[in-house]
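As the next step, I selected for study a record pairing a protein sequence with its backbone structure tokens, which the following lines show:
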Amino acid sequence: MEKFAGIGSSITAKETYLRSLVGGDYGEFTLGMNTSRILHEDPKLLLFSLARYKFVSKMFSGFDNVLEIGCQEGFGAAIIGQVVDHYFGIDFFIPYIESCNRRIQNEKMSFKAGDILSGPIGENFQGAFALDVLEHIEKDSEDTFMQNICKSIREDAVVIIGMPSLQSQIYASEGSRIGHVNCKTGEQLREFSQKYFRNVFSFSMNDEMLHTGFFPMSQYLFVLCTHKTLR
């Protein structure tokens, strides 16, 4: 390729190179309305969200089928879809699913309206995950939440749950706190998960940094669970 040393004759090579970057069959990807709002109001939140999806993608790399509970507008679905054979996202809020199906055209990914509290998904997933969902589930429904996840996965499947820590809520906005009805400490999340899985591994996050540090100083919590005990 001709070097871009100056304006003159090198401009053709530079333009050819730039055109190659925008070519292909992908077109332009449009963000959902809620994701667009976040991008304009507090874009760093999208960075934190993508970091959480990256962690999930590393844990699920090579899986044949993976379920996301609470996929919203599919912002992180592409990260998971790159490393698994098939990604299946559900959300109870129908406009989110309509947005996903309108904007995201990828044969490795599918989206469907569904509420995990209403029953199992009816598949046999190798992995399942829910990010920023459990804190919105009323405590008297949290066992139904986990039971229906267990009934949607294989015996040796891996489940990842991510949620803001209880300690982080003093820094949360008023709007967030209203919706966060079931935040937990790290110990509480681990103990809850141990009711349904033989192995539970705990991780934490501060901003986009994943670690295994002191729970009360963590903004975000993960559990990675294997070998369900509920049949």
Observations:
- The chain has eight helices and eight strands.
